[in-house]
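can u pls check wat happens w/ copper (II) ion
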Amino acid sequence: MNGKSHRPLSFLFATCILFALPACPGPQVKPDSAKNANLAEAVTTFEARSGSAISGDATLRQDGDSVRIMVNVKGATAGEHGLHIHEKGDCSAPDAASAGPHFNPLGHNHGGMEQSPRHAGDLGNITVNADGTGTLEVVLKGLTVASGDLSVVGRALVLHEKPDDLRTQPSGNSGARIGCGVITVKTGN
Ligand code: CU
Ligand code: ZN
């Protein structure tokens, strides 16, 4: 009795699997777009430099023709600190001088976020609170996460001791490099 009554149901499921009918019950197969999104995301973790005790990280995500950069800093002194993408993804020097100058593939002058044109790697300043933490979210036009001349990957995100004055050439007079992180493509999940 039982065997007879559920046979037609099994047959329906078998037909569904064989022909992938849209009207069939169960989850529909969707393209794996979430996995592809990770190809457009990069990350970095700050290493303390120049005798500082700072830590933190950043996510850099492709957003149309721009890269959205979300930065977290811990252990810094309260106030404004200059923040830039520097040309070389090399934080090995104790003072992070190995990261080279500001990322400037188009040969512009140094400036702030409101100035255009400016160095592609100019992020202005991050404000650090009394508890030593700070966050910044900025959108930099014209950069890419994907490889190419304007890619942020393989460069370094550098946090400075002092505020960037957004004027002085070529680096905004922002003092020592107290944090440095090599920017890499995000892998996994
Ligand atoms: Cu810098
Ligand atoms: Zn600059």
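The CA atoms of residues 66 and 153 lie 14 Å apart.
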